[in-house]
Specification:
A hairpin with a 6-residue loop joins strand 2 and strand 3. It is globular and about 40 Å long. A 7-stranded antiparallel beta sheet has the order 1-7-6-5-4-3-2. The longest helix has 19 residues. The protein has 4 helices and 7 strands; from the N terminus they run βααββββββαα.
Length: 159
């Protein structure tokens, strides 16, 4: 999956970092709509709506608003939920595992305890090299990295 030497790994993008908040706070940020609205989209974009049904087959939907005021509705479903440790979601399927006809990515987010906080890893799988390239050109590493920085800053404010 994330091994860049395999054919499948060549279609993946990976963001991995140690963050200085515990896994419980990272988990809460990813699974609580009120938190997610505060950090999910790199500024100046905003996340203006969020729907979470935290179970396999449950909906994961966000609406991101561009700086120009254009909304982008992104809906998918959770494939796997391991409380406090792992989230897997995709836009290829909607609520109840119903195919959407639109597939761009599947994301695997893991949270592991680390002596200074959390070992955070996001692996994003694409169906082909063109979609991976498009995601890279959209600024995957900078965007997901900025969102992670925003997640940490938001959750630190709560403590």
């Amino acid at each position: 999956m994330s091994d860049a030497t395999t054919e499948e790994g060549k279609l993946d993008l990976v963001l991995e970092r140690i963050v200085d908040i515990p896994p419980s706070l990272v988990w809460a940020a990813w699974t609580t709509p009120a938190h997610l609205l505060e950090w999910f989209t790199p500024a100046p974009w905003k996340t203006v709506d969020c729907e979470i049904d935290l179970k396999a087959g449950g909906i994961f939907r966000t609406v991101m608003r561009s700086p120009e005021g254009v909304d982008h509705d992104n809906a998918g479903c959770y494939l796997e939920v391991i409380p406090g440790k792992k989230l897997v979601f995709t836009d290829a399927l909607g609520s109840g595992f119903r195919p959407t006809g639109n597939s761009f990515m599947t994301a695997i987010i893991t949270f592991e305890p680390h002596e200074t906080g959390t070992q955070y890893k996001a692996v994003v799988l694409h169906k082909n090299a063109e979609d991976k390239q498009k995601h890279m050109e959209m600024g995957f590493h900078q965007g997901w990295g900025t969102a992670l920085d925003q997640l940490v800053a938001h959750m630190k404010k709560l403590n």
